[in-house]
Amino acid sequence: MPLVVPVLRLFMVCLNVYETFKTLKPPQPSTRRGGQPSVRALNQRKRDLKGCLAVWVVWCCYAAYERTFDRVVAIFIPFYSEIKSVFLLFLLLTRAKGAEPLFLHVLRPLIKPYAVVVDPTLEVTRDIGDFLFALLQVPLDYMLSLCWSPSWHTGELDAALGESSSSTHISSLNSAS
Predict the structure, then answer these.
(1) N or C, which end of the chain has less CB nearby within 10 Å?
(2) Is-contact 155 161, C-beta < 8 A?
């Protein structure tokens, strides 16, 4: 069983990515509507997007649970690896039809009471991340030029201090040793 769960996990992610790729592709244009997709195709795409999003939300919650509590729970529950394998097979075989009820009846009631707190927190976190990203885009040379004078590159610093001050400093170092 140690090999089955990682293989199922990898297959699940690859299948999710492929299904998302197919779902995000725009529907075929209809000849009857002047090149616009039909209403039926748009509704089907909307249902597919909803199912795809439910699969990703369930998968992310499972991955977060597994990363956080997996080793502790595995100690207390016998055949835990087999249970995880059955759950992953369930998600693989049923796809959106199995993930949507899990999302609607299990995850959504757990998350909904905290939406009032989580939404503003995520918005502030996003703003801070955007600011830090913009700050990192400023070139390092430009920042260094603001902090220090470029005179240390050209030797103008020695000329500004004068040769006598630098030579007396060097001679005092030689006499001290």
Answers:
(1) C
(2) no
- Counted residue by residue, the chain has a size of 177
Tokens 């992310």 locate to 60
3 vs 38: CA distance, rounded Å: 45
CA distance 123 to 127: 6
Model pLDDT, residue 4: 86
CA distance 164 to 28: 82
Q: How crowded is residue 91: how many other Cβ atoms within 10 Å of its Cβ?
A: 21
Task: Give the whole-angstrom CA distance, residue 81 versus residue 63.
Answer: 14
Which residues in the chain show pLDDT less than 50? Answer: 165-167, 173
> Residue 116 and residue 95: Cα distance in Å, rounded?
30
Beta-strand ranges (E) seen in 8-143 are none
Amino acid 24: pLDDT:
92
